[in-house]
């Protein structure tokens, strides 16, 4: 109890000067309720140099991403994995990302377009807009006027040629070559390379030499010539499929003259190939190795290699090994590999689990669109996502994804400008959901972001702009 003098003094002070202090009882509450008194916070962004993806959902800040700007600082590798169910915006993200990257003068993109409708690939409209003719690989017209890629192209080293031949055969057979078959292939390839002059060696030469091996090949190993012929028979039958089977015409001749490897965008249209056949991984192996030796050069260009239906690569141990080497090699020469996959379970539980894990480890950027709860938990476990991110993946709406950039995890809404919209949402691209109609918030955002994107594309980036 206060003494009378203190009470009298406080009363006199209040009468003269007014009440100067208010005494309030303490309030007890939970942390969930008290969090509202804290100022809003958001995770730091990735910098302001690169291409605009959209906005971070919780803070509303613009989200800018560029693996070439981040490499060596925030990214140990420039490679990128995109995951998610169909209809959630993967296709729209890929296309706008490429279009925005191509505004920079030092960028070049190759797309393996495995999807399509109406007889053309999904990227056909964008290629037309940029004045690019897609490289359409089609066994139905290959013998007449189609495109050919020669696995024995002299621009590929002899070691690369032999490795590619082995991969083609192993993918088709579903198992590795034994020592005898490998020896028969090696001596046939060596003979063809050495004795073919004034033209490119072709697969027909290899098949012919496997069927009719030279005597010196047998003598070198002190074996009978009939044994060498028997060892190479299965190999010859597999390669014969590329020469005279359902894949004929695409790889059994000299490389087509006039393929422009200096174009800003190179589209390989694989939409005429059955995506579930053994032909697709064979095609991807040949295209990947051919690009490694003809396209990737030390010319200071930043290159993007985007592969749709990438499980054909990651799920085959033989093709995955080739691409694993390409990814390691490409980092020194400015290559960003973008793999688009529907389900992570397609690859981590497949025959190439070891190779898939190695490729996934190289992808320092992971973008995950909506998945079912079970798939989201599996994805979170494999990729090491935080628990909160795993929980929201099944609730994501189209156009919104979880971005994990080397541990920097944010939820990002992808935004599309009106100029990009007709190129991204087309009737032929309905494997992904179309843009929501009549969304005033989205329309306002895209209009505002369009201004920002155009400003950024016209010179505010650290890169040289066209």
Describe this structure as you would to a colleague.
Helix 6 packs antiparallel against helix 14 (317-331) and helix 14 (317-331) packs parallel to helix 16 (353-362). The protein has an eleven-stranded mixed sheet. The protein has a two-stranded antiparallel ribbon with strand order 5-6. The protein has two domains: 51-147 and 260-457, Rossmann fold, CATH 3.40.50.300; 158-244. The protein is built from 20 helices and 13 strands. The protein is elongated, with a radius of gyration of 29 Å. The protein is an alpha/beta fold and 466 residues long. The protein has helices at residues 4-17, 31-34, 67-70, 90-101, 124-129, 158-173, 179-195, 203-211, 215-220, 225-231, 233-244, 279-294, 311-314, 317-331, 345-348, 353-362, 373-383, 387-392, 421-424, 440-460; strands at residues 51-56, 62-65, 79-83, 107-113, 116-117, 120-121, 135-136, 265-269, 302-307, 335-341, 363-368, 400-405, 408-414. The protein starts with a helix and ends in a 6-residue tail after the last helix. The longest helix has 21 residues, at 440-460. One of its GO terms (molecular function) is ATP binding. This is ATP-binding protein. Keywords: ATP-binding, Nucleotide-binding. It comes from Streptomyces flavochromogenes.
